[in-house]
Every structure is written in structure tokens, then in C-alpha cells.
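FORM 12-B: Structure-to-Sequence Request
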């Protein structure tokens, strides 16, 4: 069982909300009070001090230091800003998990992202491509030796992610067959479920991926610019190539195009 034992009001409420959202059984108590018999994990703040059943040493805090807590009880120490991370760690301990943090990514204009600790999925997201790198970095920030596995299906978007994640270990994964059949009521979950499957597949380590966009890929970027524009504007091939390379977003390319021709709209073009 998880016990929340803290006098930190903000940490208490954030952790309790996270635990309730996940449907995890827990109890709460004041720091220093005797722990229930079935206590497995205690969540507390750095200011709360050790939580002990009988004053005996032996437990280990999440920061690696020895605590005065009872043997067999793991302690997760966190601030309010780390509430979600603390709950993920506590749940992983409770389930006998642990292990490496692996992030699976199903690339696209709105990538699916799944975060696994051991075999447990601890977080999932679907965000615009422009927000994907920040999301991934945030999820692996406190993890020792994290691994990011990116599917090889969406070449342009995937290469952007590989090239931008230059500070973490990345594997490129054959994503064939990773998108499951979606039954009634599961619409919209495909990319996230594919990301879970990608996270569980070994890939080829890579630190960069250079892709020369095809004519069809460039045309799709130009079509996207026309759809995103409020004045019927279509960017040219040079700007489309910069979007494909991750140097510009579509909105930035449109702004550059608009500035370059003095703000006059260009007639939509297929070429």
C-alpha cells in the first residue's frame, strides 16, 4: 500500500489527485505516525523527515541515501512540482517494477508518445509535432539512462525528432504492425497505442537521420501551408524543404514568405 505522509499542503493534494486519477489504493497520515502494517511505499517531502514504524534503520530514500524508516519500506521524496514523478515511482515500486525508462514515439504531425518504466505504461501523450521534443525531454529529465524509441514510418517528422533529441539515446524502430485494430469507442487512440508497442521493440541506435524529401512530401507540406494560411498563400519549394528539414514550422515558413513578398497573397499553386 502507498502512504502519503507529508505536511506539505501542495504536495499532499497533487499526489492524492494523481493517485485517485489512476485508481491506486492509498492512505494518508501525519509524518511521524506509526505506519499501517501493509505499507510498501511512503511519499513525503524533503522537509517532512523520516517516517518510521519503530525507529529501525534500513529503508532507502528515492535519492539513494539511507533513511531511518522501517526495513522493507521504500520512501519517495518529492516536492510539489514532482508529484506526478513521485506517484509514477511509487506505483512502479508497488507493482514490483522499476527498470529503465523507455519512451516510444509514433511520429507524425501529432505524434503519439508513451512512457514506460519497466513493463508499466506510466504516461501517454498526443501532442503537436512542435511540442513533442519538449514533452519527451520533460519525461526523461530525472530518469537514469533513458531510451527513446522512434518509429520509422513518418520519415520527415521522425527525422526531425531524431535530430532534435541529440542529448538522449535514440533508437529507430521498424514500426510495421505496431498500430493495433481499434474497436468501437477507441478512435483516436491508435497513435498512442502504437507508441506503446514501439517502446517495447528493439531498434537501431542512431544520433541523426538525414532525409531528402520526395516531391510528394514537399507538395503535402505546401498543401498544409495553404490550409493553414488565412490568405490562400502557398509557400514555395525552398521554404517547404526548410520545413521538411525541421528548420521552420509551417507557420514560420508562411511568415517568411509573407515578409519576402511584402505581404501580398500568392495565388494557390500546385507546383
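FORM 12-B RESPONSE
SEQUENCE OUT:
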Amino acid at each position: 500500500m502507498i502512504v502519503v505522509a507529508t505536511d506539505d499542503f501542495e504536495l499532499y493534494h497533487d499526489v492524492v489527485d494523481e493517485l485517485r486519477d489512476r485508481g491506486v489504493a492509498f492512505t494518508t497520515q501525519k509524518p511521524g505516525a506509526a505506519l499501517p502494517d501493509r505499507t510498501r511505499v511512503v511519499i513525503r517531502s524533503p522537509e517532512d523527515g523520516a517516517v518510521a514504524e519503530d525507529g529501525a534503520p534500513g529503508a532507502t530514500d528515492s535519492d539513494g541515501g539511507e533513511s531511518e524508516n522501517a526495513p522493507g519500506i521504500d520512501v519517495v521524496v518529492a516536492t510539489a512540482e514532482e508529484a506526478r514523478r513521485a506517484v509514477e515511482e511509487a506505483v512502479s515500486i508497488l507493482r514490483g517494477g522499476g527498470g529503465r525508462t523507455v519512451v516510444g514515439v509514433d511520429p507524425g504531425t501529432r505524434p503519439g508518445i508513451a512512457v514506460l518504466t519497466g513493463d508499466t505504461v506510466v504516461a501517454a501523450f498526443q501532442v503537436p509535432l512542435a511540442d513533442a521534443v519538449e514533452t519527451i525531454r520533460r519525461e526523461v529529465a530525472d530518469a537514469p539512462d533513458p531510451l527513446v524509441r522512434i518509429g520509422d514510418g513518418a520519415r520527415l517528422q521522425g527525422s526531425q525528432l531524431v535530430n532534435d533529441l541529440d542529448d538522449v539515446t535514440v533508437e529507430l524502430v521498424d514500426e510495421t504492425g505496431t498500430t493495433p485494430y481499434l474497436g468501437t469507442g477507441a478512435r483516436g487512440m491508435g497513435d498512442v497505442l502504437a507508441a506503446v508497442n514501439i517502446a517495447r521493440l528493439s531498434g537501431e541506435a542512431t544520433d541523426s537521420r538525414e532525409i531528402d524529401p520526395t516531391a510528394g512530401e514537399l507538395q503535402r507540406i505546401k498543401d498544409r501551408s495553404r490550409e493553414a494560411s488565412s490568405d490562400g498563400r502557398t509557400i514555395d519549394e525552398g521554404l517547404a524543404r526548410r520545413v521538411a528539414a525541421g528548420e521552420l514550422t509551417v507557420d514560420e515558413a508562411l511568415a517568411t514568405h509573407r515578409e519576402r513578398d511584402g505581404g501580398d497573397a500568392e495565388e494557390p499553386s500546385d507546383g
